[in-house]
């Protein structure tokens, strides 16, 4: 089979599309014929060799955590899913023709494989950081870097839970944030003052890692009311860095429910072929994403 992998840490150019042995489902796992794989910032952070405790890496390594596809192997002890079913979930080395998943859910009706691949990690992350930051119904959450996959999920989940959201993004994504129920404003010079003019902020999330932790603490008044998923230096300022996943099966079940009820939709901004995985990483690192990027197999 074909698989994207890297033999050394580095830039996008270390990614290679190569022949590899097919993986097989172990106990509690399934294997899928991959149709699409989600492109997440954690993918290129791992490729660069960043020290992410939740994702130890042995070289050579495959790439990717999220996938959608057709079940073609069911491991020992697995019940409730059969060969031939369409699922989306989380596993390892998903930029490949076949991948093993350790958590999955059936794809909601009407969802394409490309769309489904963009949900697993981002919804788990969104649910986790909303919980960790402690924001409650009736309060206001500030989301810095709100137009990407996690931001898109946070805005919609917050709206379902009765939480008001202020989102920052580039000028081109202001209408997109408003369409998801957020009060939108641009980042850049003067952004703190623009946020203050919009009202009191009870909690804040840093999704972009653009060096705004001090300002978010100032806006909330308390480093305990700020969580970052993108700035590894956040703990130096007393802010929690969230990088360890909670229950992925629970998150997938909630994602499937929200999607089925029309409460959650994350658009796919761009799709890439397996051979173009490096370009997908370049674009992901550049930011300014509206929704999700996926690799199509």
UniProtKB/TrEMBL annotation:
SMART domains: PKS_ER. Its EC number is 1.-.-.-. It is an enzyme of class 1 (oxidoreductase). The keyword NADP applies. It is found in: Cytoplasm. Its main location: cytoplasm. It holds the Pfam family ADH_zinc_N_2. Residues 10-295 form the Enoyl reductase (ER) domain. GO terms for molecular function: oxidoreductase activity. It comes from the Bacteria. Gene3D superfamilies: Medium-chain alcohol dehydrogenases, catalytic domain, NAD(P)-binding Rossmann-like Domain. InterPro entries: ADH-like_N, ER, GroES-like_sf, NAD(P)-bd_dom_sf, Quin_OxRdtase/zeta-crystal_CS, Zinc-ADH_QOR/CCCR. Coiled coil: none annotated. The keyword NADP applies. Keywords: Cytoplasm, NADP, Oxidoreductase, RNA-binding. PROSITE patterns: QOR_ZETA_CRYSTAL. SUPFAM superfamilies: GroES-like (SSF50129), NAD(P)-binding Rossmann-fold domains (SSF51735). Homotetramer. This is NADP-dependent oxidoreductase.
């Amino acid at each position: 089979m074909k698989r994207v992998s890297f033999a050394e840490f580095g830039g996008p150019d270390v990614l290679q599309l190569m022949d590899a042995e097919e993986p097989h489902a172990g106990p509690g796992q399934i294997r899928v014929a991959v149709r699409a794989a989600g492109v997440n910032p954690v993918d290129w952070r791992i490729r660069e060799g960043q020290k992410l405790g939740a994702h130890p890496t042995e070289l050579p390594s495959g790439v990717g955590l999220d996938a959608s596809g057709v079940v073609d192997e069911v491991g020992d002890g697995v019940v409730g899913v059969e060969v031939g079913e369409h699922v989306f979930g989380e596993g390892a080395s998903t930029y490949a023709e076949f991948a093993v998943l350790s958590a999955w859910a059936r794809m909601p009706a009407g969802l394409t494989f490309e769309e489904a691949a963009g949900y697993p990690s981002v919804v788990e992350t969104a649910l986790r950081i909303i919980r960790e930051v402690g924001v409650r119904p009736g309060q206001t959450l500030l989301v810095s870097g709100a137009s990407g996959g996690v931001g898109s999920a946070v805005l919609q989940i917050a709206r379902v839970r009765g939480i008001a959201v202020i989102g920052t993004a580039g000028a081109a994504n202001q209408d997109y944030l408003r369409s998801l129920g957020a009060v939108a404003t641009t980042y850049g010079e003067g952004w703190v003052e623009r946020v203050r003019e919009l009202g009191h902020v009870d909690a804040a999330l840093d999704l972009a890692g653009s060096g705004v932790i001090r300002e978010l603490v100032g806006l909330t008044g308390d480093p305990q009311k700020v969580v970052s998923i993108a700035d590894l230096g956040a703990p130096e300022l007393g802010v929690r860095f969230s990088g360890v996943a909670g229950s992925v099966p629970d998150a997938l079940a909630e994602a499937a429910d929200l999607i089925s009820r029309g409460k959650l939709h994350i658009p796919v901004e761009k799709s890439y072929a397996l051979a173009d995985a490096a370009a997908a990483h370049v674009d992901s690192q550049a930011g300014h994403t509206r929704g999700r990027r996926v690799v199509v197999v």
